[in-house]
Structure formats: C-alpha cells, structure tokens
Write a structure and sequence with these properties.
The chain is about 35% helix and about 10% strand. The protein is built from 7 helices and 7 strands, in the order H-H-E-E-E-E-H-E-H-E-H-E-H-H. The strands form 3 sheets. The chain has a 3-stranded mixed β-sheet with strand order 1-4-5, with no helix packed on it.
C-alpha cells in the first residue's frame, strides 16, 4: 500500500489536482457515478478520495476491502479508483477472479514462475498483464479487448479492423449442375 501511495505522489505530485498529467472524469454523469461508488465505500477509502464536481476531478483513490457486492466491485469503474481486496493465498486470489464475471484486464505482479503459469492457465480475462499495469493498451502490436461481460472482440490495428468488419461468405450452387447430375443419374 505504501509503495502504491509513493508511486502516485511520484507521478502526480502531492496534489494530483494541480498536475498537468492527471486527467478529469469525462462528464458530469460519470463523475456522479464514480462519486457514488466512493460514497458507498467511504469508510474503506485508505488513500485519496478527494473530489471537485465543478472540475469533474476525482483524485487517485484506493479502497481497501470494499463490499464485494457493491457497485464498485460489480460495475466497471473507468476512473481513478483502485479497489484492493486482501487475500491469504494465490489460490484464494485465483478463486476470487474465477467466481466473478471475467475482467477486462487482470494484473499480476509476481516473480514466481509457477504463480504466473497458474494465473495464465487457470483464469480468463480480456488481457492478462504481468508485472505492469495498463501499458498493454498503448501497444498496437497486440490486441486489446474483453471476453464475456467485459466485451467481445479485439481492438488495435488489424484486430480492430477485423472486429468491426464483417466478411460475408457466399455459397452459390448452380441449379444447372444439380439438374444435369440428376438427369445423368436417371439415364443410367
């Protein structure tokens, strides 16, 4: 948790609202939606949580052990809020992922090859990102997209073209060949 906090300060300074590199929520409706998620989990906010409705600003925020049935954990966030769920083992973490709808992205931070292979082989997500976060979205050499409730199809480059294009197969059988074939059969 401390490393995450230090990273936010390193990236955006002590006051992210003043940083030219920290964006805002896209519109009032989404600001209200994300603010509502945070209000319902207020006692679990362990970092950030500041907001300004006039500027659609929500600070980088960490929510520790949120209610697992809350909107924060069930709906897509698309905002600067990171829910953190504590688990006692990698098995419990894997089970946590597999008991819910498939995530758009799954992030794993580990140097243990067995753990990496277990998560690769035994979970399903739109993207699996190991020892990094979000960077896969800017790599146009690999597809990005969801699976199940998190979306369908892949985007970026040719994958995006293929996803939003429809190749129309056409099979056209001639009646002429069928009739000739039938007539030939009848003559024998």
């Amino acid at each position: 948790m401390e490393a995450l906090k230090k990273s936010v300060v390193k990236q955006y300074g002590e006051d992210p609202k003043r940083s030219n590199d920290f964006g805002r929520i896209v519109n009032d409706r989404h600001f209200a939606r994300i603010s509502g998620y945070l209000a319902a989990q207020n006692e679990n906010v362990v970092f950030g949580g500041e907001s300004d409705s006039k500027d659609n600003y929500i600070s980088p925020t960490f929510v520790l052990n949120p209610d697992l049935m809350s909107d924060l954990m069930v709906e897509e966030i698309f905002g600067p809020v990171l829910p953190i769920v504590e688990v006692d083992s990698m098995q419990e973490a894997k089970d946590f992922v597999n008991q819910r709808e498939k995530p758009l992205a799954l992030y794993l931070f580990s140097q243990d090859n067995q753990t990496v292979e277990m998560i690769k082989q035994q979970t399903s997500s739109g993207t699996l990102c190991i020892n990094d976060a979000v960077i896969f979205m800017v790599n146009h050499e690999m597809p990005f997209g969801g699976v199940g409730n998190s979306g369908m199809g892949c985007y970026h480059g040719k994958w995006g073209f293929d996803t939003f294009s429809h190749i129309k197969p056409v099979m056209h059988r001639s009646f002429l060949l069928t009739c000739q074939s039938d007539m030939h059969h009848l003559q024998n």
